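Form 12-C: Joint structure prediction
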Amino acid sequence: MDRNAVFDHIDAQVDQHIANLQAFVRQPSISQTGEGIGECAAMLARILSDLGCQKSEIVSTPGHPVVFATLDAGQPRTLIIYSMYDVQPADEPDWSVPPFEGRLVERAPFGRCLMARGARNTKGPLRSFLNVVEAITAVHDRTPVNLIFVIEGEEEQGSRHLPGFIADHQTALGKADAMYFPHAVQSSNGAGKILLGSKGLLYLELECSGELWGRGPQESAIHSALKPIVDSPAWRMVHALSTLTSVDGNRIAIPGFYDQVRPPSAVDEGLLEAMLPGFEPDVGYGLHRFADDLDGLALARQFLFAPSLNIDGIWGGYTGPGSKTVTPHRVRAKLDFRLVPNLDVQQTLGLLRRHLDRHGYADIQITVLGRAEWSKCSVNESLPQAAIRAYRSLGVEPEVWPMNPGTAPFFLFNRPPLNLPFCVAGLGHSARPHAPDEFLVIEGNDRVCGLAGLEKSFAAVLYEFAESSGAGSADTGTSP
Amino acid sequence: MDRNAVFDHIDAQVDQHIANLQAFVRQPSISQTGEGIGECAAMLARILSDLGCQKSEIVSTPGHPVVFATLDAGQPRTLIIYSMYDVQPADEPDWSVPPFEGRLVERAPFGRCLMARGARNTKGPLRSFLNVVEAITAVHDRTPVNLIFVIEGEEEQGSRHLPGFIADHQTALGKADAMYFPHAVQSSNGAGKILLGSKGLLYLELECSGELWGRGPQESAIHSALKPIVDSPAWRMVHALSTLTSVDGNRIAIPGFYDQVRPPSAVDEGLLEAMLPGFEPDVGYGLHRFADDLDGLALARQFLFAPSLNIDGIWGGYTGPGSKTVTPHRVRAKLDFRLVPNLDVQQTLGLLRRHLDRHGYADIQITVLGRAEWSKCSVNESLPQAAIRAYRSLGVEPEVWPMNPGTAPFFLFNRPPLNLPFCVAGLGHSARPHAPDEFLVIEGNDRVCGLAGLEKSFAAVLYEFAESSGAGSADTGTSP
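Section 2 - Result
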């Protein structure tokens, strides 16, 4: 099949494709609050149905539903398209546009960009991929590979109910040859990123309260004149947290934590070195100094292969204007661990609990809010090789990241029982996920693809995968 | 003048007096937000004018106004009545009644109580005192002492503009013989507290941000997948705070901090021992264990004479439901120091700044939100002696506290240039200041006075002070 005719169709339809993206990001779908989730799932299921999917279902879970669709094109090879329709909240005060308006703004040096919550993560890339399916079927009537869409609504909450969905649909999913996460991961300097892994995540809420402790204020904050004779859950939380990291906050101080960390392999090191010319860890945040003033290979290695412990939020007591003299009865903190091979979630949780207990903080309550295991795919598998060829066919030299610093539930596809190879790939640039002014480049420049280029790269991945042998390397690197 | 006729009048008018309190607490006057401040000041000035004050002014300050009134009764002795009409916010979710409704509720074992923000702190006692002035002038046409009312609207923000007011009105205030803070400070077990001091306060906001630090996220929170290579202002704040106290949060770890702390004098120790039989540190919070498991004399000494450092609030990053994976660019904390003789505000601020700087936290910004120096009055002064006699005349044995664990701007009256003796006194019980379900006992029981008893004790203090010689002891203990 002639992919150039598809490319021409994409070029001709780009205004309609932009409008499709705008309509999709205008529909809020906030994972944490549930706002718009049902409407967004329904919108997505309709789009998939209109694309010609033989089946397009909204599958209930105890949380937000999974949109599950199959497009059987009668082809020998089958890809699972994994993505998500949920987004982070957009309550930051610093947005320069309304986050659900789908506005196109000029953003140097990229020209016009779609600036909206979800523009990058991940409604922009998802809708772009669906534009591509639409273009291919318009031109050639059928896609070069069969597609199984698994589009979840809880990725931003750690994909809590995706394991259950996958267990329930194991037979259908078992027909796939690989899992592809279409994304816009080209660096701002034009480097053609392909990501072959995902860090694990353990997202926790810690609560320290007088009631749990049996000391200090019990039911509510009290007048702080009592502090000389009253224990403080706030100080307790501060001191407990301070035991968890080095003073600079950059090394985890839980005994035994690093014992299971596997250093990058020789192949990984080779890929890290090959990454360096275009390596750009920042995605639009204006960072100018990195931890420990790292740069070069050490920075890349740390970014991709180091675990971390982060404070996502902390709150307790009086936080309004001016002064209120109270000793709070409760302080809470949200923390996340990023886990690399071979750190697993349960083991990490156990180490944290034991560490707190040994420091006398058995009363500090841990609630797990999200969990994902790490995953890793060999560069020699046919899907990454297809992505590499696709990029080169479009004139972009690939930059293969052996690990993704972010977290996605790829392990659910990559580990048993499905054991699928996977990758994240797509040209086109997007930035500022989980932050104000999140954006996806629409116009592009001489280094970075715009929307049309992004869509062509998705199409090229599908064509290259269809043409590949299907024989992956034995070195899948998928097991812990 | 016959105080019994005044007492009979109070008994006869108690329903009207309750209604007066309800009307006053129904008018919000939230210091931090300014809500209702202007209306409350106007209401108060009208009440004072209606009481027969020759002058009743709303004196502007750069913040909330001071209500300033004089009731010249042609008597030889003059008292400044210091109080406040502002209150803390009432945004805690745990209120069992609407905080500005002025509802009367049964609260065992006290019978009917007024439950409202300000019921104790301090609109309830203030309005009760004004009821007493009304009763005295109704029965006897004039009060036994001249009264100068200084009712401020910024006590809950550290009386920021009261120093300026006092400087501007030094001549008028210089006519007074003493300063009286009428309050409902009887313990729940009936002990007749009289307070002869006030701790100092230094209320601060600390800010730790990537921008100030020059490291980590700069303008907004960023995706926490970057944590392995990005410094965290949240961890920095946690570690900086952890250097400020012992691990249990109960001893200040700033070098030199305790050098200026003066131990209680022999007179103080005598008063502490005399306090013990009725000593009740808790005011309705349900506390059941105190710091270091202290009790008895050690608990009383710690409560009245130990300095403290409290976390009033801490906040930063994502604090909503579920999970949002961000590395915050800024964390803030509100802290308060309680200062005892001879710790002063400026010295304490300097010690904190130096401590943070020496630990490498020069970038952590300190904003002063409130400041007050400690104050202390000798028990031998004529006003405390008048309060002691007043209590005994009502059949209540006084329990003299040589220091008040709380903070009030008494130092502005007690230190030069005014150098006035002062005390806090009044029977009747109130509890839960700065907390949900703040209340003032209206009905009372066999141990605790209700509103009528509270008002009689205020009247008795005025009569006893009028009859006292005016010769105070040389041991004023007022200077640092």
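Section 3 - Comments
Residues 3-198+374-467 of chain B form a domain with the Aminopeptidase fold (CATH 3.40.630.10). Confidence is low (pLDDT under 50) at residues 471-480 of chain B.
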